[in-house]
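Recall the central idea of this unit: under ordinary conditions, the amino acid sequence of a chain determines the structure it adopts. In this exercise we apply that idea directly, starting from the sequence alone.
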Amino acid sequence: MNKYLNAIHLWEMGYQFGNSVGIHAPALNMHLAFATVSAFYFVIKSFKDHEKSKLKVVRIIIFILSFFFVLFVNTRMALVNVFIGFLIVLFYAVKQDNFRKIALKGAPILVLLMAVLFLFVQKDPYMKEKYSSVSFAYMDKVGKLDEIDHPEVKVFNSLVTRVSIWKSAWELSLKNLPFGVGASDGKPELNKYYKETNQKFLAKYEFPTHNQFLDFLLKFGILGPIVVAFYIFTIGYLGYDLKNAIVLSFFLIFFTSNLVDDFLLRFDGIAFSGFWFSIFGSYWLQSKSFIVNGQ
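Accordingly, the structure predicted from this sequence is:
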């Protein structure tokens, strides 16, 4: 926190904070993004249900704190997902209620949200750089990261590094169709391919695929990404069928997170998705039971 207030080492703060609580920063922010969207949902619901003022204030405080911590850990995908999640919640709120009422009640919350974002950016000037020049720098160097002077400093967390990894994983996957290289050989074979293609930077840091679909394509061939898609999109179907903003937001967060990382290789990703998938599935079954019973 002290480094944030003094604008020191801002580029590494999110990862340092994640490490301090023993969790990978993108995984932590995936949890925080869902918590923030859920908190926003309950804020909107409290206004719709005319809950007591004290309860509304508590819900708003929880929401602002959760949004602040998304900014604090500061992974790009999580922040984008949070704002899209807000839109999904507002869309379903407007469908179920009067637009004018929702707009009037939601305006103060939006102003508060923008104030938190503005104050945070003022204390974190690196954020402007991160979401503009840093994220999309050196895109002409895909697969040629060693041509960049000190790539570990300039592009370690940039999109060009992810795209270079994805390019290598895709090329190696195509060479091993239709069955892949095997469950235990994915990362060793990818590291070997980095060396074979003379990508020293990627080989030095032994980057994993950072994409769940590509990871399973490399390991298990054609069936791999089909299984991942079936698992994740079933959550999306539950949300669509239930017309539930929370379930749809979870689907969006988990789907997009697995496009830029491989959370189904991690215990926290498996437990996170499995736990909520079970709850959403149970809720879906209950709703179907109510319909069958005419309730």
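The CA atoms of residues 12 and 73 lie 9 Å apart.
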